[in-house]
Design brief:
It is a single chain. This protein has about 80 residues and is α+β, with helices and mostly antiparallel strands. The chain has a single domain, classed as Winged helix-like DNA-binding domain superfamily/Winged helix DNA-binding domain (Arc Repressor Mutant, subunit A). Helices cover about 40% and strands about 10% of the residues. The protein is built from 3 helices and 3 strands. It has a 3-stranded antiparallel beta sheet with strand order 1-2-3. It is globular, with a radius of gyration of 12 Å.
Length: about 80
Amino acid sequence: MKEIAPKIVVNPKVRFGKPVIKGTRITVEEVLGFVTGGMDYEEIEKEYGIKKEDVVAAINYAASFLKGEVIKLPKLVKV
């Protein structure tokens, strides 16, 4: 497991190496879907067990990715 941003990690054995919230199997992509689908922080925490700080970290990671500021992902190995 490699931390690529605060609270965001990748592991080739977890969710096909997609960025996830540290300590979970919830992807950044899923978190963005929750938010754009209209869920608020409290609903996300209750439904998925992740905190507001985790949601914010996912949004920040996605924004950095779109700006081209994301740290290089580690070389993934075959699972």
